[in-house]
Design a protein that fits this description.
The chain has 318 residues and is α+β, with helices and mostly antiparallel strands. The chain has helices at 11-35, 48-96, 102-107, 109-115, 150-153, 155-164, 206-274, 288-317, and strands at residues 38-40, 43-45, 118-119, 123-129, 134-136, 169-176, 182-191, 197-204. Strands 3, 4, 5, 6, 7 and 8 form a six-stranded antiparallel sheet that branches. A two-stranded antiparallel sheet has the order 1-2. The radius of gyration is 47 Å and the shape is rod-shaped. The model has no long low-confidence stretch (mean pLDDT 81).
Length: 318
């Protein structure tokens, strides 16, 4: 009587799945760790890719911030020293001309060349008194005007200038260019010793921090090169992973097949023995569990033969 074979997944597919799936899961975990960041509420686990990218961005931002800060401070120092130097030059000029009347001093072209000097690329120095009246300026239309009139138009500028009426002062204010762009300026005001005159030196502070922008450009270029190189390496990574998975799949398949083959052979032998082919040879050279199984089938084969022979002898004896 033939017995219907049980259907289901065979040993070979099970062995392949059981071996390959953990490997694929391991590769998947590595892939996630390398390329994907994961958020768990307030906790963020950074991927290796993002760690490199974020580190580069942080380095770029930090470098820009520190460079700009240092250059801005250098610019402030240059502007301050310019105001102090011009104030000292005016003081010396006045002391060298003790008999010159104030009206003649303020109209003197030599003193004007001292009072109005260039600061940075676009800045300049100017001179007003402690009443807020301007006497020397790069713009002739400003000369002779009362700077109090700027208190409503330029409140930030006036606040710094108003403080200078009582002594040295400095600060930042926004200035609108001819093209409508608003940029910050730094101004330092230094009093001329033994006079009521005050020297103001001012210019755009970004004239000094411009090299920081060049650093930023270079850092962005480095970041772009990093991302490009990263993209190329990603492609190589995918190719390598695919090749490794294929090699593993082929290797696991043949290894699993070599393990399953003797078991299938013994299964076929057992089937033949069960159908009465008691002389079926068992040709297994494997050791371990498979060898032990082959020996058990051989013993079963021998026992069945012996039982049949005994049964036949009993029948013959009757």
């Amino acid at each position: 009587m033939a017995v219907k074979k049980r259907s289901g997944l065979g040993l070979l597919p099970k062995l392949l799945i059981g071996t390959l799936i953990p490997i694929l899961v391991a590769f998947l975990v590595i892939w996630v760790i390398v390329f994907f960041s994961v958020d768990f509420g307030k906790v963020r686990i950074m991927s290796i890719k993002d760690i490199g990218s974020e580190s580069l961005k942080e380095l770029s931002a930090t470098s820009l911030k520190e460079s700009k800060f240092s250059l801005d401070k250098l610019g402030e120092k240059i502007i301050r020293e310019k105001a102090i130097d011009v104030a000292a030059e005016i003081e010396i000029f006045i002391k060298l001309h003790p008999k010159m009347k104030r009206e003649d001093l303020l109209r003197d072209p030599w003193l004007k060349s001292i009072a109005v000097q260039k600061v940075g690329e676009t800045g300049y120095t100017a001179v007003h008194d402690d009443k807020g009246i301007n006497y020397f300026h790069v713009n002739p239309q400003i000369v002779g005007t009362d700077l109090h009139d700027l208190s409503t138009k330029l409140p930030a500028f006036w606040k710094i200038l108003e403080a200078s009426l009582k002594g040295s002062a400095s600060g930042y204010y926004d200035w609108k260019d001819a093209d409508g762009k608003i940029r910050p300026k730094f101004m330092y005001l230094a009093p001329v010793k033994d006079t009521d005159l005050i020297v103001a030196a001012t210019t755009y502070i970004d004239e000094f921090s411009r090299p920081a922008k060049a650093i930023t450009g270079r850092m962005k270029k480095i970041e772009e090169n990093y991302l490009e190189e990263y993209g190329n390496k990603i492609k190589i990574f995918y190719v390598v992973i695919l090749c490794v998975v294929l090699v593993l799949l082929v290797r696991i398949y043949f290894y699993a097949r070599s393990v399953i083959h003797p078991i299938r052979y013994l299964s076929e032998v057992a089937d033949k023995i069960s159908m009465g082919e008691l002389d079926t040879p068992i040709q297994i050279k494997e050791k371990g569990e498979v060898g032990a199984l082959a020996e058990s089938i051989e013993r079963m084969q021998t026992s069945v033969k012996a039982a049949i022979e005994r049964l036949q002898k009993r029948r013959e004896a009757r």
